[in-house]
Amino acid sequence: MDAHRVRIADFQERKRRGEKIAMLTAYDAAMAALLDRAGVDALLVGDSVGMVMLGYPTTLPVTLDAMVHHTAAVARGVHRAMVIADLPFMTYQASVEDAVRSAGRLIQEGGASAVKLEGGRPVVDAVRRLVEIGIPVMGHVGLQPQSIHQLGGYRKRGTQPREAEGILADAAALVSAGAFAIVLEAIPAELAARITARVNVPTIGIGAGPDCDGQILVSHDMLGMSGSHTPSFVKQYAQLANAISAATESYVSDVRAGRFPEVTAPAVEPIA
Questions:
Q1: Is 185 a known active-site residue?
Q2: Does the pTM of the predicted model rise above 0.70?
Q3: Distance between CA atoms of 262 and 265, rounded to whole angstroms?
Q4: What domains can you pick out in the chain, each with its CATH number?
């Protein structure tokens, strides 16, 4: 595992060499440190924190203050991985000025190295301005959770030719505006492969097939901590929810039975 901090240039070099990029989400310093130590290339502080950690049914209630708080925690936990922070709902859509202020807080107060925002052609002015002032931007097309009410649910996007061409155009527009990478969420694998071949920046897939330049999963999904709401495309590499429940049940049983803490016999002084 390389010792240096992962940078934008490393992403670009990975695509050039055909080496895959591994990303996960993180929301706190403890988990970030574990994932960083395991060699993940980048950690996304996603607005998915609203659903994963805060109990909201969607990402929409997540505030910029909350994102700054969680981003700073993750940044304190890593030594190598790039930290990328989501711009939450309505912190960049209204104006370019809003986008600049919001992204600036995530970089300055949160310690992120880059920000991510959802959307294609409607947000290119914001992307372009952020890049102009030195803030790296990761794009996000396909399924856009912040637009869930308009989209009508968490369903695969780009399955019809017209929509697929729109997603392809969005990806190209983001690259032209200066995005250093693009998340492709819940689109057909064939469309993801077309986009990956056409753009000169890395594509990071989530439910978008194997041909993207990298992959990202919500860490709690990957670790088996999401209960019954795990997306079908997720591979669970552990079942930590079961292990945590079992450990907690053992602790509760020991406390109630008086087995914890263990009673130790007092030391007996030798008789002279």
A1: yes
A2: yes
A3: 10
A4: 8-222 (3.20.20.60)
